[in-house]
Amino acid sequence: MSRTRSQQATYTPGQYYRVPMASDDLANLATGVVHLVESRIPTVEQHRCLIMPRSPIYTGEPSFKSIRFTAVGTPGPTIGEIVRGRMQLERPHDHVLAERASWSRTRCLVDWPGVEHVSVNIYMTDSQGGPLTREHLAKEVAAIIYRSFKANPHVKVSWADVRLLALAYYRNVWIPILALDC
């Protein structure tokens, strides 16, 4: 079952959205709202995630399809799992930016409440000059998120508990879609 933007707009407290991952782009989900988010691999456990609010210019329909970071049995790995090398991504070796092969680099910006907006370069190839894989990109983005949280000690949420669900492209910058478990 797919949810449309108009259905998302009818959110009322106490209700949760069940979001099938195959067809929905997480960037389109309402921010600051609890969603039931499933892994692509069926599991008994479901996760309720609060998709963190983003600036209005970084919400809604992205410029092109978002890159998903679904972890085995969860909607996405935590930054702690990625940094510690314990993530189990689904399809980790996919070349996720192959359609953008003509780019030498791109930009990523962490849009989190209370974190200063600074965009950071992401180079489009790995250290051997090969295309970026989903796993390599997750590590790059996790490092950016980690540094952003460390540079803003007033943010009281532990960086290790933040989930990386997706990476959405708005105009000229990639924005991580981040969530907290509820």
Structure explained in plain terms:
By secondary structure, the chain is α+β, with helices and mostly antiparallel strands. The protein has one domain. The protein has three helices and eight strands, in the order αββββαββαββ. It starts with a helix and ends with a strand. Residues 1-23 have low confidence and may be disordered.
Largest beta-sheet details = 6 strands, mixed
H-E order: HEEEEHEEHEE
Note poorly predicted spans.
1-23
Sheet with the most strands: spatial strand order: 1-2-3-8-7-4
Report the structural category.
alpha+beta
Roughly how many Å is the radius of gyration?
16 Å
The separation of the N and C termini measures: 23 Å
Question: Kindly state the mean pLDDT as a whole number?
Answer: 79
Instruction: Report strand %.
Output: 15-25%
Percentage of helical residues?
10-25%
Oligomer: single chain
Would you report the number of β strands? 8
| Count of runs of 4 or more consecutive helical residues | 3
Overall 3D form: globular
Number of structurally distinct domains? 1
Annotate the secondary structure layout.
Elements: H1 5-8, E1 17-19, E2 34-37, E3 47-51, E4 64-68, H2 79-83, E5 105-109, E6 119-123, H3 134-150, E7 163-170, E8 173-181
Parallel strand pairs: 1-2
Antiparallel strand pairs: 2-3, 3-8, 4-7, 5-6, 7-8
Short structural summary:
It is built from three helices and eight strands.
What keywords describe this structure?
182 residues; alpha+beta; six-stranded mixed beta sheet
